[in-house]
Design a protein that fits this description.
Length: 664
Amino acid sequence: MFYLIIFHYFYLRTIINYQLILLLRLNILLFFITFSVTVFCQNHRKTDSLLNLLETTVEDTNRIDVLISLSRLTFKDMDLRENSINYAEQAAKISEKINDQYRLILSYDVMRNFYYRIGEYDKALDYDGKKLSVTKNLIEDFPGKRRYRYQLAVTYNNLGNVYLETGDVESSMDYYFKALRVVEELGSKLNTGQIWLSISNVHIEMARLGTELGYKLEQYDKAEQYLLKGLDLCEEADHKPTIALVYNNLGAVHNNIADILPDKDERIREYENALQYYTRSLNMNIAQGNNYRIPANYNNMGDIYYKQGLLTSDRKKADELLNKAFNNFKKSLEMRLDLDDKGGLSRCYYNIGMYYDKISEYSKAIENMEHSLKLAKEVNSPKLIIDAAELMSDIYAKLDNKEESYKYYRIYSSYKDSIRDKNIVEIETRYENEKKAKEIEMLNMEKELKESELQRQRIWNIFIIAVSFLAVASLIIYIMQYRRKLRAYREIVRKDVELARSERRMQESFEQKEAAKPEAVNFSKEMPESNDKKESRYADSPLTESKKQEIANSIIYALEKEKLYFMQDLSLEKFAGEVGINRAYVSQVINEKFNKNFSNLINEYRIKESRRLLLEDEFRGYTMEYLANTVGFNSTTSFNKAFKKFVGVTPSYYIKSARREISR
């Protein structure tokens, strides 16, 4: 290699014209190809050396060490990767045979890393569980061994990573804090910084799942604080791979903040901040040859260029930015194909599909999105499935393919609901409580140094008794209140079901009678008594009492026969137009004859209809959103609010209790 460099140096000095400059470029390319081949050969020589050593090694512990090294080395080589898991499994079998528990957990760790990096999270979780069980046994047998406690922290952190990838933020946060407690006891700055980095990822995910802008910004602020805290510790330890990762995640925080800000200028500024952090991370990873992290950098930078292209009003600049985005996505895809990273590949195909969707090449967009969704399902990543299904639904909607659009929307909706149902508020509360409990524990420890052992024990006993008493008392009060509330809700539903049955019987009887009559149907019904205030309000109205009754009959006919309340955009003006009566007269009659305003009257009919549908078997499989739209509401929120107002309980509680009541 040295002679090759000297040769190129003197050869450069002979170049004096443009044609020779082109030749120079070819020679430089030849140099890098030669260097790459040399490195490739070195890796294969290492593998060959280990294989030779494996053949000559007799002692079991040495064979295990060689097999673990072979597994780690062959994973980096696509041609040899399939052998990686086999070497690790052999190491685990020998470890079990000679009862070497420490080497067994190292073998499990190699296997979980193999499956985690290719996106098979279920298998990674299985080996994490096995490693955790063996590690805890080792700590019980040898409590003073630091390396066992270190492996415990690694396992907790790995479990947190897997649960975060699969959307279980509560379990993820729980394991990260377990890991944090262990590394803080060990006094490792680098590992503590790395755990703070992991915890920040949970807050990023919680922000992504949130709905309120204030809540999202609060979570991103916490994530940035923990990242900067971790960055300080990692810089003290001078661990460049983790520093590069922190820069990448800081870029992700600013990227996500920009996505939710309403002001365009603020979004542009945050995207620039994100791009700076991503660029720092990329440069550090390239310098270290960290090929596992570089694809993520390219993907993230492509994401920024794509969003900047959408924001700019300059068409030429927008096209340049979108092309930059596409090129970065392609670089990331090519590198991830070499790594066989299914989760990363899913994200790359998604981004490329997003690009083709933007430039209206829908067939290419669908092709890439299908790859993305398939891989997302293989690695069981709800986040990737949600993103891919949502975009597929949008693309088919643009193509006016309603059936396919609805199919993918159902996939998106089901996965979105399953993640959002996790109680994020309880997670954050528990996290804050754990922090406060730790502070209280530290204060108690300081007191213990100043007080006698007897006094300390006495105070501690009183504290435990008081807390236990309050906890039990609070639990009893809560249970009593909950049961009382539950009984009240059940009584509301019971009476409402009886009312619904009665209304149905009356309606059926009414329809049978009216069907037997040849003459026109009179929809007069008993009206609430008008109050004096309303009469004085309409004192100057030209409507006679008989005319009011006639208008009231028209309103009832429009609602009960024509069911105009099914119209989602129904307003007083539109309703008056449908029945062919002056808007002011309709409003007056509704106020005087029904003793309510137009909005309440319409919502009352919609809720009555929804109560009926909720009890029908044919509507059992439909979502609340579909039901709300069916009876005329524009959104699930307005439907839930109106239902609670008129019935007294939420629709979800009503349907569970009502069906239980009907089945009795």
